[in-house]
TrEMBL record:
Keywords: Cytoplasm, Heme biosynthesis, Iron, Lyase, Metal-binding, Porphyrin biosynthesis. The keyword Zinc-finger does not apply. Belongs to the ferrochelatase family. Its EC number is 4.99.1.9. The keyword Cytoplasm applies. This is Coproporphyrin III ferrochelatase. NCBIfam families: PRK00035.2-1. It comes from the Bacteria. Involved in coproporphyrin-dependent heme b biosynthesis. Catalyzes the insertion of ferrous iron into coproporphyrin III to form Fe-coproporphyrin III. Fe-coproporphyrin III binds at residues 58, 127.
């Protein structure tokens, strides 16, 4: 056991968003998501309707269960003994309950995989705030083992080949769904969650060259993944110079606050007006085909495209692709080696290089006042 390749880590925690699993869950789920976040009531009522259209069930929890199975299968196949747990920010199984169980099971050093590939407040620091709040609650409860829990978060994986290559295959499959006559002329619209522009500009670590430029590390990292996918698609199809762009979806918040633009709907209208024969939507911002994908793209954006008479298709997200599960294993082994003081190879495609392991103080700051965040340099409460 002492020479385990995952040493000093004893468990892996899959940390995700969570979603409702029936109509009665929808309103309490949305209350969890938006507590203290200043989302207009009309927007909440509208988003509730998206969930009710799907019977009140978000696909995200089922997808995380499949991902859990894929991670466990990959580790088992490699002979790696590392238990994998799952907890959410906004719905059961709640993070705090999973951490209580992890501690009771005797685990001390735990790696965390957040289902968010890019640097930004919602996808990084907010998860670290959730970890800090859960740890604090468990320590106050006196939960067995909680005082010794030490959590480390895996680095951002947007440029890992195990994330990029499945997206390339899925983009090729989505191109193949288009009528043959428009396939070679189809544009690629890479989509991600819009966020407030002010949060985008400060995303990433303080020393990141992209930080402080418009869109910050959030946009720079997405542009990199989009470029990597577009280049691989060009190579596979033999179609050079296919136009692509990064566009946004799922805008929330007050209309007076600037968020990243253009929205996918406006983009589809603009490229249609400019004569584009077809568009493939590639949701690189998400890890699974959850509600933002099946409603905002497959329902809303597809209706808009149909009204325009513009052929569109949508690439699947990475989901539980075995290459993604293998990438997670790679990140686990890499981080474990680093924690043992070794200098492992840190796999990353493209020009930006591997992300930092430990978020520095003031990485991906919140717009509002700062809350304690675990698994970063600003978490001083580590045993
Ligand atoms: C960057 C980002 C990701 C991607 C990275 C990651 O995956 O972490 C993401 C993922 C997700 N967002 C999700 C759902 C929601 N997001 C909301 C609201 C917001 N998201 C934001 C950002 C992000 N969100 C922001 C800045 C807000 C405004 C409020 C706030 O500042 O917090 C709201 C409230 C209603 C609304 O306003 O839309 C809901 C219901 C689901 C679950 C889907 C399902 O159920 O299948 C998932 C995976
Ligand atoms: Fe961060």
């Amino acid at each position: 056991m002492s020479d385990a390749p995952t040493r000093p880590y004893e468990a892996l925690l899959l940390l995700s968003f969570g979603g409702p699993e029936g109509p009665e869950d929808v309103v309490p789920f949305l209350e969890n998501v938006t507590r203290g976040r200043g989302i207009p009531r009309e927007r909440l009522a509208e988003v509730g309707q998206h969930y009710f259209r799907f019977g009140g069930v978000s696909p995200i929890n089922a997808q995380n269960r499949v991902l859990l199975d894929a991670l466990r299968k990959d580790l088992a196949e490699q002979g790696i003994d590392l238990p994998v747990y799952w907890g959410n920010r906004n719905w059961a199984p709640y993070l705090v309950d999973t951490l209580r169980e992890l501690a009771a099971d005797g685990h001390r050093r735990v790696l965390v995989l957040a289902t968010s590939a890019y640097a930004n407040y919602s996808g990084c620091r907010q998860y670290r705030e959730n970890l800090a709040a859960a740890l604090t609650q468990l320590r106050e409860e006196g939960a067995p083992g909680a005082a010794g829990l030490r959590l480390d978060k895996l680095r951002h994986f947007y440029n890992h080949p195990g994330f990029v290559r499945p997206m390339v295959d899925h983009t090729l499959a989505a191109l193949a769904e288009l009528p043959e006559g428009v396939r070679d002329g189809a544009r690629l619209a890479f989509t991600t969650h819009s966020i407030p522009s002010a949060l985008a500009d400060t995303s990433g670590a303080p020393g990141d060259p992209a930080r402080g430029r418009p869109g910050g590390a959030y946009v720079a990292q997405h542009l990199e993944t989009a470029r990597l996918v577009a280049e691989a698609v060009a190579e596979a199809t033999g179609v050079a110079g296919r136009p692509w762009e990064l566009v946004y979806q799922s805008r929330s918040g007050s209309p007076q606050t600037p968020w990243l633009e253009p929205d996918i709907g406006d983009h589809l209208a603009a490229v249609h007006a400019a004569g584009a024969p077809a568009v493939v939507m590639v949701p690189i911002g998400f890890v699974s085909d959850h509600m933002e994908v099946v409603y905002d793209l497959d329902t809303q954006a597809k209706e808009q495209a149909e009204a325009l008479g513009l052929p569109v298709s949508r690439a699947r997200t990475v989901g539980a692709d075995p290459r993604f599960a293998a990438a997670v294993r790679d990140l686990v082994l890499e981080r474990a080696a680093s924690a043992r003081g070794e200098r492992p190879e840190r796999c990353a495609l493209g020009a930006l290089g591997p992300s930092h392991d430990l978020c520095p103080t003031d990485c991906c700051p919140a717009a509002r006042s700062a809350l304690p965040a675990a698994a970063g340099e600003d978490w001083k409460d580590q045993p």
